[in-house]
UniProtKB/TrEMBL annotation:
Gene3D superfamilies attached to this UniProt entry: Immunoglobulins
Species, as recorded: Leptothrix ochracea L12
Region (Disordered): 181-224, 271-299
Keywords of the record: Membrane, Signal, Transmembrane, Transmembrane helix
Record-linked Pfam families: He_PIG
InterPro entries in the cross-refs: Ig-like_fold
Stretches that traverse the bilayer: 711-731, 743-760, 772-792
Top-level taxonomic group: Bacteria
Signal peptide segment: 1-35
Protein name: Uncharacterized protein
Biased composition (Low complexity): 199-214
């Protein structure tokens, strides 16, 4: 009886291992798309995605497109297998489509490629040729040959060759850009005056680097004095080196900083003159943060005495405000082939399970390794405390009309940043960025709709395939084979959508209306594609500005975001409202939508205004309001300089919203250590407010070792259990060994028990067991089993 029981248990364990192994191997193999006739090749020949839609062509306009193949042995030869090409377009042997189409239509092509070894691969392609909006001339105009080029324009055009993001960051070098506006001293000779540096010859300050962008020409006709220049260096200092991801946030920070400086100056002057300063309400009325009303009045630059009401306009004239925005604007290139370089802080362990609300971080890939450069150049990786971050979004994916999403060729070295996050149980949500909306102006309407359909159907599919791609390398593949803990290591866990420079209805009503139609269709297209894989749980994070959420009828207005949330998460509804309880509500989809709101400065006002905007939305009542508030995550800009204000923001967010987010800035020489809070100073309030009870120091120290190394310890535990099971089986047949070594063998049970207890305490995969009644039930079962074993044990009478 015992032998059959043992055999059954051993067989069950072995069968489970083989089943897990087979499932993991199948999943890994199914994720790799290989050409059928190149299965035996180490580098199979393929033509990429299936199906592939080519960029749209227009009748009468030259069309050039290269078909690329991967793998195989060069040289490669391309040929048209089936389907007619548009009249006037030919496929060359090197894979280039070239020509001027003469007939509009929809063409389905089958293109094949053959390598030097005779391997072949085919791929279907779809090419649409549209009729021109205007009647083309009977004979296309000849294109002149390039004879010369404007070097001043070449620098600006070079930045357009690849996808870039717009950020706003001031440096001390910009102060030199206003020097030409200063009147020369009276004793300066005309020759000396002519030598004053202009905007193109101004020498940079000591902190400027040779890679700093050229400053725009100073504002024309703006009065400027030495006193204004001196004050500018004072009130602008706290903004130097801080990276703002949008111009609206930058201008809000600029206005808030001016108002803070005005308040300080007026208070100090009143104290010096022993007069009563204006009341806070009078100051607030005259200088309103977040608006440019204080910049509307022109004042003489050399005026010696000012009314205090005129101080904001004197410090920040309207032309200067516009010039500062242009001077701060910088292009940050995306480098999909050079992902971010991360490293865990020295005291970092897994994400704390006791965190009350999720903590998000957006990490653009230019914030580490000097804009995505290779870490081999000796640059220091960006340290991250993963124990306080549930979800991190590397912002490295940009798409345009031709490149929907870059097909990244991940290597083992390039997956280090994903493995680093996974090791600490932090989810990775890849950021998708776009700021060019000119495609919405495409005419005629049919061509525009065809392009939109392409973006909202193919982009989501490619994004899901990218997220589901298994990580390469045998260590990651082996994690899918471990019995009981097997899990395929995927590239990503969700998507963060950051659309910048959204069309404004005040400047272009038509384009704004078209974007308002495109945005929800794109998000719902992403949700539809991710819902096709119900075996995984994904996150969709929408990055918006607080000002965009209060625009009536805007695409990111509160009520529209709420409707998107319901469509994506599919909650239970009753009488038109979400059904929920006091803790959470039930989502019927495998998606979780969060709205990451970038707060304008000063946050003392903007965070309360955000709560008020949601409270006052007529679409949100009762549980709907509470559920939506728990889906909103305010975001703060780093670094922070005011510890008290930073702590107050954290307390308010923890009480009113569904988490906190951060936009970390890159290390900059402009940020002096004395002017910013250190990482430890920032993490301590965050840990205190969002984690609360720190728990026992011994438990934290234990989990700091166990959790990041849990895969090694899991494997070691299962090897110990296998060894103990083998020993027990041997003792069933070898009674003399059992009598001789039985008591010693019992000591072998202690290590796996201790290791299992450590994993139970710290392993994120065992959180449900740790928080539920499984431990109590297991203890009861062990006690009952021990009692039954003692009762059924055969008694041997003493001789």
């Amino acid at each position: 009886m015992k032998a059959r029981t043992v055999t059954f248990i051993a067989g069950l364990w072995l069968g489970w291992s083989l089943l897990t192994l087979n499932t993991s191997v199948s999943a890994s193999v199914s994720a790799s798309v290989l050409a059928a006739d190149a299965a035996s090749s180490a580098q199979p020949l393929s033509l990429g995605r299936t199906p592939e839609t080519l960029p749209i062509a227009v009748v009468g306009q030259r069309y050039v497109r290269d078909i690329h193949a991967e793998g195989g042995q060069t040289p490669l030869s391309f040929a048209l297998i089936s389907g007619p090409l548009p009249e006037g377009v030919v496929l060359q042997d090197n894979g280039r489509l070239d020509g001027i189409p003469t007939t509009a239509g929809r063409y389905t092509l089958q293109i094949g490629v053959k390598d030097a070894l005779g391997h072949t691969a085919t791929q279907p392609y779809l090419l649409k040729v549209l009729a021109p909006s205007a009647k083309p001339s009977s004979r296309p105009a000849a294109v002149p040959v390039l004879t010369h080029m404007d070097l001043s324009a070449a620098a600006s055009e070079a930045s357009k060759l690849g996808p870039t993001a717009k950020v706003y960051q001031l440096s001390e070098a910009l102060l030199d850009g206003l020097q030409p506006l200063l009147a020369p001293p009276a004793d300066v000779s005309p020759d000396t005056e002519n030598d004053l540096p202009g905007p193109s010859t101004a020498s940079p300050s000591a902190s400027a680097t040779t890679t700093a962008p050229a400053l725009p020409a100073p504002p024309k006709g703006m009065p400027w004095s030495e006193a204004q220049q001196e004050q500018l260096a004072l009130w602008l200092q706290p903004l130097l080196g801080v990276e703002y991801p949008s111009v609206d946030l930058f201008l809000a920070a600029l206005d808030a900083r001016v108002c803070a400086h005005v308040k300080t100056q007026i208070t100090n002057e009143a104290r010096r003159l022993q007069q009563q300063p204006p009341s806070p309400s009078e100051l607030a009325k005259q200088c309103q943060p977040g608006s440019a009303t204080q910049s509307a009045k022109k004042l003489p630059a050399d005026q010696k005495v000012l009314n205090w009401q005129d101080l904001p306009a004197w410090l920040l004239p309207a032309p200067l405000r516009t010039w500062l925005a242009k001077a701060a604007e910088q292009d940050r290139p995306f480098h999909p082939d050079h992902p971010p370089v991360w490293t865990a802080t020295s005291h970092c362990h897994c994400t704390d399970a006791k965190v009350k609300l999720p903590i998000f971080a957006i990490a653009p890939n230019w914030t580490s390794a000097d804009g995505g450069s290779e870490p081999s150049k000796g640059l220091v990786p960006w340290p991250i405390d993963f124990s306080l971050i549930q979800r991190i979004s590397p912002l490295i994916l940009a798409f345009d009309d031709d490149v929907i999403l870059p097909k990244l060729a991940w290597t083992e070295a390039q997956t280090d940043f994903i493995e680093q996050a996974h090791r600490h149980d932090t989810r990775v949500d890849f950021g998708i960025y776009r700021r060019d909306w000119r495609f919405l102006a495409t005419e005629p309407a049919a061509a525009r709709e065809a392009l939109i359909q392409r973006l909202i159907t193919q982009t989501p599919i490619h994004a899901r395939e990218f997220l589901d791609q298994p990580l390469p390398g045998w260590p990651d593949r082996m994690k899918a084979w471990l019995p009981g803990f097997g899990e395929v290591q995927r590239t990503g866990d969700g998507l963060t959508i950051y659309f910048d420079q959204i069309p404004d209805a005040r400047t272009d009503k038509v384009l704004a209306e078209r974007f308002a139609d495109f945005y929800p269709r794109f998000i719902l297209g992403l949700a539809s594609a991710l819902k096709e894989n119900r075996q995984r749980h994904y996150a969709i994070n929408l990055v918006v500005l607080d000002s965009q959420m209060r625009q009536p009828g805007g695409p990111l207005e509160v009520s529209r975001l709420f409707e998107l949330m319901k469509a994506v998460e599919e909650p239970d509804m009753a009488n038109g409202r979400i059904v929920s309880n006091n803790s959470d509500y039930k989502r019927n989809s495998n998606l979780e939508l969060r709205v990451l709101v970038q707060l304008s400065e000063p946050t003392t006002l903007s965070k309360k205004q955000l709560r008020s905007d949601i409270e006052n939305s007529p679409m949100l009542k009762g549980d709907d309001r509470r559920v939506f508030l728990r889906s909103v995550v305010p975001m703060l800009m780093l670094p922070q300089r005011d510890l008290q204000q930073y702590t107050d923001d954290l307390v308010y967010v923890q009480d009113n919203f569904g988490g906190i987010g951060f936009w970390p800035s890159a290390p900059s020489p402009e940020l002096k250590l004395a002017d910013q809070l250190q990482p430890d100073q920032l993490s301590e309030p965050l840990r205190t407010i969002f984690v609360g009870d720190p728990g026992l120091g011994l438990s934290n120290a234990l989990c700091g070792v166990v959790c990041p190394n849990r895969w090694i310890l899991r494997t070691l535990l299962e090897l110990m259990l296998l060894l103990n099971a083998t020993t027990w089986l041997v003792f069933q047949w070898q009674w003399d060994w059992r009598i001789r070594y039985g008591r010693i063998a019992l000591l072998g049970v202690i290590p796996p028990v201790l290791l299992a207890a450590a994993l139970l305490q710290c392993d994120p995969a065992l959180a449900n067991v740790r928080e539920g009644n499984a431990q109590t039930l297991a203890l009861i079962f062990i006690l009952i089993a021990a009692a039954v074993s003692a009762l059924l044990k055969r008694r041997v009478e003493k001789p």
